[in-house]
Amino acid sequence: MVRNYITVNALWGIQHIQDIVCKSDMACFPVMEDNRILGILTMKDLVKTHPNRIAIDAMSGNFAYISERESIWKAKEILDKKSIDMLLVKQNNEVVGVLTDQILNYELGKHVDLLTGLHKPDYIYYMAGKLLNSGNEISIVFFDVNDFGYINKEFGHAVGDRILQEFAASLKANTPEETYLCRFGGDEFILLTPYNALDCESFVEKLLQAIRSHKFPQNVPFDVAAGIAGGRRRSTRKLDLFETLSNLINIASLASTRAKKEKGNLIVECCGFIDEVAI
Amino acid sequence: MEKSLESIKKAEINMRISEFEVPPMQDVLFVGKRAPIGPEAARRMVDILSPNQYEIVRVNHTAFEALVIRKALFTMLPEDKLVTILLEEGGKVANESIIIKAQVNITLLVSKAIDL
Predict the structure, then answer these.
(1) ipTM exceeding 0.85?
(2) Is residue A52 within 8 angstroms of chain B, CB to CB?
């Protein structure tokens, strides 16, 4: 968020504000009167409004408040859903900064894996908390490419990167809409689902078949193992989201390692219980 | 021939003196979407000179953004009816970038019959 944001007085003239805008990087400005925020003056307002008008007669932007502790994905959801131009970030009932779509997109870009275009794991933590809080089951599917080190050594790292890109695209194309995919690191990927572990088995099997039938560059021999972990909801006792999800990811990861060695590249693990998670 | 070197410079002053209207607007102000003065500025201007007498009515119109109407008119005619009539007539001379002032006189005609 931007902490040193510029506010404009409701009675300031547009021409005066245009002069201020020329010296700043901001595209939206909270319009204030008597220490109250009345609305948001957007760049569009400044372009289309007569320069003689005052700010209060030009502002058309919408705003909403968000707590400083909320995640950036929550902020993005609010901005997209409600056609909000600016989020005012509050801490102890005081506005401490502002967020716009431009600032958020820049920040969100840091949480996207550059090679595959998938999210990084922190997004999965956010979505898992959201699913659990809305009463859903969750399970984690952990995908691990077999012998990826061999592919890199035998065909080169550039080919290895292309393999990962195509694998990621294939996963994305074949996963249900209500699931969330991320690159966990290296040749490992995670899928968060709103189903229990046993319900995931059939669609993950189909997914693995679809990936195996895909022709990868230079006919590189490609296979992948998957481990599924999930559990039943048990109580409303509050637990740490990070710990709960880390445990699930770990169980799924170990299951995928066993799947490589033992049977058919897919193993389902039920870890017992998942308690309600507090965010 | 002898050349004339004389030149004359005169100033003519015309004055038109009239009483300042309070407030300087009449019953209704039509505010165009791109007018140099917005409805809130107009309302605040008259509010200082004649407090609480005018109200902004935001409208959905091709040329106008809002009407600033003298509240007293609403005691004689319901708001929606008055606004419809104003937009119908004002719309005929509408332009996005102008402000029009209008004088609105409402005369109620009452006729009653009573038993003798």
Answers:
(1) no
(2) yes
